[in-house]
Every structure is written in C-alpha cells, then in structure tokens.
Amino acid sequence: MKLTLKLLLLLLFVLSNHHHADSSSIVKFLPGFEGPLPFELETGYIGIGEEEEAQLFYYFIKSENNPEEDPLLLWLNGGPGCSSNTGLLLEIGPVALTSEVYNGSVPSLVSTTYSWTKVASIIFLDQPVGAGFSYSKTPLGKTSDTNEVKMIHEFLQKWLSKHPQYYSNPFYATGDSYAGMIIPAVVDEISKGNYICCNPPINLQGYVLGNPVTHIEMEINYRIPFAYGMSFISDELYESLKIFCKGNYFNVDPSNTKCLKLVEEFNKCTENINIHQILIPNCDHTNTEEISPDCFYYRYHLLERWSNKDSVRKALHIHKGTKGQWLRYNHSIPYDKNIKSSIPYHMNNSINGYRSLIFSGDHDMVLPSFATQAWIKSLNYSITHDWKPWMIKDQIAGYTRTYANKMTFATIKGCGHTPEYLPEETSIMFKRWISGQFL
C-alpha cells in the first residue's frame, strides 16, 4: 500500500512538472538571430476561464538591467486583433527585423539600441483570443472590450502566481492605439481587484499609452483641424466645414447636404495621405502578400513570413495544430467594441493616484494629438508643469505638459501613430518618465 502511494505521488509530481514545462518555456535561440539571445526570453500560454478554453500566448522578456527591482510592464498592441509581436519586433523590443527583400529563408533579426527592456521586464500579450498565437480549445465566440478587461486581469493573476518573484515589482499596464480603450479599464479592474480576497495584490503604479483611442466618435473630428494645420486643405474649405458641420464631420445628419459635400471635398484632398504617418508614402499595408519592398510596411510582410516558419514556431514552443496562418493583424475576430469612451476610467485612475504617461506622435492623422489633448483637458486637472519642449542632445524631440493627477502628456516630433516610426526617441521619453525624471 505504501509503495502504491509513493508511486502515485511520484506520478503526480511528474505530471505537474510536465504541465508547467508545457505552459512556459525558456527560449535561448531564435531563427534569424545569430548566436544565443543576449536577453532572457520566456514564452508560454495561460489558460483563462474555469475550463481554460482560452489559451493566451505571451512573450516575456526579463529586464536587462535589474529584474529583481525594475518595473514589470504588460504590453498590448491595438486593433483589436494585432499580435503583441508587433510591439516586440517592430516597436519597443530588444530585437528587430532587418529591412531586406524576402528570399524564402527565415528573415533576419538584429539587436536594437532602443529596447524598453533596458529598464523594465515586459510581458507582450497576444489578445484577444485569435490574435497572434493565442487560441481557443472550443469554437471562438464573440468577445468585447469589457470581457477582454476581465480576461487580462485573470491572465495577470495567473501569470504572477507562476512567477511570484515579480509580485513586489512596480507594475505598469502599457500599449498603443486601440489599447487606449482597454488599458485604462484594466488599471481600474486591477485596482478594484487588489481590495478583494484572495489573490495577492498586484503592485500597480500606473500606465503608459501611445496615440490611444479614447473616444473615437469625438477624436476623428480632430482630423479636420489637423489637416488644416498641415496645409492639406484651404482656408476657405476649413472655414466652410466649421460653419456647416459645426465640429461634427464624420457622423453627419443625412439632411445636412452642404456639410456632406464639404466632407467629400475634404476626403478628395486627403485620400492619398498616409494617415498613420503623414510624411511617409501612402503604400498599401493591408495586403501583406503583395506589398512592395519599397514600402515602409514591408516589415509587416517580413514579420508574417518569420512567424509562419516551422522553425520559429518550434523555437517559440507554439502548441502544434493550434494556429493556421499567423497574421500580424487578425481582422476576423468577432468583437463588440462596447466601451464607447475610456475617459471615465482615466478619471477613476487619477482619483486613485496612479501615474500615467500619454504620448502622441505629432504626425499621426489617425488620432491627432489635438484630440488627445482635448480629452485630457476634459479631466479638469490643473497644470503643474506647463507646455515646454523636451530635448535629446540639445534638439527638440517633442513637447510636454504635466498635470496634478500625475498625468504627463508628451508629443514626439516627427513620429506617427505608433513607436515603430521613431523607436529611439520614444524609448528615451519612456526611460526618463519611468525613472521619475521630468522630460
């Protein structure tokens, strides 16, 4: 009887360790990168829900500085439906794809100088289910903003229970674009959850958002004054738009035919502008199969070729048979955008005393910096450090302002919709802010 019990215990031990090995794995080499990785990378899945049907995939990179004390970040890309691998390999990570014409082999990776992992540990999370390498064991149902917030909170609790050494590290939720609808609500959810039994509290300190979607019905109207400020439309057209549309340019009453005609004229003037970065040629980035190597977004093609290589999936410990074609941006995920404005969450987070950095590339026409400044102004917090340039090597890198609610707003001069356009400048800004310096 004792022998049988010992064998059972031994079997349970082996099975539990085998399961843990399956759920997360250390990656020492990546196809396309020469030699061992100069940083610590772990990949894995966290099951969400009682039956753990949802399997959220993550890349975790340990801080290259002092991982025992440095901040822990969660990074989300936008969409919804963009893989966080976009953030890792194109925006803020320690390796990046090299710009080369694809020849059928594994695209090359090189080390970067601008990685946020120089000062922080980062969890890059593929969410919602269906984005990147995240998958569902059952047919994919419709998800929503509010559902994602709860799933991300559960993910963090489970991830930290498997990595308890990070409970004491300052935690920041970060991301860009559509993450602006999710991150403020996640911060609010974590804050509330920290006061409920029975998980250890997450050491939440604040959040960082780049060119965030906040209240899109209001924000898109700022494309008109932005276009005017950039001399894309005439004085006369701008004045007429203001008179006949009264600030509402994209949800126009069908009976307001004069406004509709003026908006049509505006669209003709700007239809060939790359609204993600107005200085970059407007090449098609939606069809990654036929994209030209001359296009800035050819890197999306390389990213998809890299991520779909069997050798890459093996290196990343992707569960076999869980993902067909990997897409950088999966548009087909059934999704209900049921948070119409994240401004109330920003307000709650301010009241609760969390720090925040909101930054805008000032050449982004998708979400112009004017729009971001407008909703920040609506929070009605007093200014503690007024508008001033922030500098890199005696050159203006952007402008910044700080508010009494511990919110810092910063522009990045010449940057577009995400950090991929100016990763070096974005990194310097982030490193100063996270260390408590004024920009």
Automatic annotation (TrEMBL):
- For the keyword Signal, the answer is yes
Assigned keywords, A-Z: Disulfide bond, Glycoprotein, Signal
Would I find Nucleus among this entry's keywords?
no
GO molecular function terms noted in the UniProt entry: serine-type carboxypeptidase activity; sinapoyltransferase activity
Q: What is the lineage of its organism?
A: Eukaryota, Viridiplantae, Streptophyta, Embryophyta, Tracheophyta
Tell me which family the UniProt entry assigns to this protein.
Belongs to the peptidase S10 family.
GO biological process, alphabetically ordered: proteolysis; secondary metabolic process
Tell me any Pfam family this protein matches. Peptidase_S10
Q: What is this protein called?
A: Uncharacterized protein
What is the scientific name of the source organism?
A: Capsella rubella
This protein's superkingdom?
Eukaryota
Signal sequence interval, chain numbering: 1-23
